[in-house]
Design goal:
With 377 residues, the protein is an alpha+beta fold. The protein is built from 14 helices and 11 strands. Residues 8-184, 216-367 form the Class II Histidinyl-tRNA synthetase (HisRS)-like catalytic core domain.
């Protein structure tokens, strides 16, 4: 007799916990500004907002990772304190246009903080997610592997001509924004006309540019809440103007970056790593250490889960909603479209430091499994 959906979910939950994780209760309401800073502004249309007693903007959690990292910052007593948590609960995310699913659904997950051996932790979380899906009866899955730290590393070391190096670095962890800025850097599409204000401030230093924007807003009787918001607007206007006026990158550099961003493996995973190393070499970036680390991950995954990579490919950028992954990342899907992955995970080493304002530092990796996508039982 087939298992019902609750039994399947419990089987997946037990598989995650078998990796040495302990139950944890996570907050449901989070500071909205923090979530948008960490996950990316593109997520805003899919969040549900609320106001706190003091008028502060809050949002319902859209995932389990950010609340887990926030909770870790609150309880950790020292850097790199080792914790492994099994998380379960509802998350709230507005469906994408045309997507047929409820706005709230249950997720289960595993979040690890403070592991000294990051490769072993990456593999352990990947295999835990795989075992959870297998426990749910999903034995044949398509696997998408990514690396959220790859493009930031390449862009930072490639010595790209101003202003494109800085502009691409600022959005290197945000897939849609990176593609937009790269199109500008490559000279694709019509050239944007800059406004009179942008033209006025583009040659000014930062302080004078901010002062000029403040004066213009005052004359227009328009105010912004706080100096930080004003600074952000002024800096963004200056950056946009510099990009609009700058010549595009040279053809070889532009073509190489475009190939890196669009790269999806057509051959073996190891061949994909070699292709990425070769493309980075054209930009003067050595990825040999990076490739060795990935080769070790693949070897260990095959040892622990021999069939997990039978239908796997590598992409440079993951189209999943959250942009905080800065290392190995993965998605599992029942079909090759990856329209609705049943599991997602990855490394997010900078998240704890950002949330705690640098007070606590800890490497972290985690995964989430989505029982609502297991199918009907």
């Amino acid at each position: 007799m087939p298992l019902d959906h609750d039994q399947v979910t419990q089987a997946a939950w037990a598989a995650l916990k078998a990796r040495g994780a302990h139950d944890v209760a996570l907050p449901t309401l989070l500071p909205a500004a923090l979530v948008l800073e960490l996950a990316g502004e593109d997520l805003r249309p899919r969040l549900y907002f609320a106001s706190g007693p003091q008028g502060d903007e809050l949002c319902l959690r859209a995932d389990l990772t950010i609340p887990a990292a926030l909770h870790y910052c609150q309880i950790a007593t020292h850097d790199h304190q080792e914790v492994a948590w099994a998380c379960e609960g509802k998350v709230f995310r507005a469906p994408k246009p045309g997507e047929d699913r409820p706005p709230e659904f249950t997720q289960i997950g595993l979040e690890r903080f403070g592991d000294a051996d990051t490769i072993a932790a990456d593999v352990g979380v990947f295999v835990a997610a795989w075992e959870a899906c297998q426990a749910a009866g999903l034995n044949k899955l398509h696997v998408r592997l990514c690396d959220g730290g790859l493009l930031p590393q390449i862009i930072a070391k490639a010595a790209l001509r101003a202003p494109w190096g800085e502009a691409l670095s600022e959005v290197a962890n945000h897939a849609s924004a990176l593609r937009r800025v790269l199109d500008q850097a490559c000279g694709n599409g019509p050239k944007r006309e800059i406004t009179a204000l942008e033209r006025k401030i583009v040659e000014l230093d930062q302080a004078r540019a901010r002062s000029t924007v403040a004066e213009v807003l005052a004359l227009a009787q328009f105010s912004l809440p706080g100096a930080r918001q004003l600074s952000h607007v002024a800096d963004r206007l200056s950056a946009r103007a510099r990009r609009a006026l700058a010549p595009p990158l040279d053809g070889v550099t532009a073509q190489t970056l475009a190939r890196l961003v669009a790269m999806r493996s057509q051959d073996t995973l190891e061949a994909s790593l070699d292709e990425l190393v070769a493309l980075a070499h054209k930009l003067g970036v050595d990825l040999s250490v990076w490739r060795e680390a990935w080769a070790e991950r693949l070897k260990l995954i095959r040892q622990e889960a021999p069939i997990a990579l039978d239908h796997a490919h590598f992409e440079t950028l993951s189209p999943e909603a959250f942009d905080y992954y800065d290392g190995m990342a993965f998605d599992f899907s029942v079909d090759a479209s990856f329209a609705r992955p049943v599991a997602t995970g990855g490394r997010y080493d900078t998240l704890v430091g950002v949330i705690s304002g640098g007070r606590i530092q800890a490497r972290a990796v985690g995964c989430v499994v989505r029982p609502a996508r297991f199918g009907r039982y």
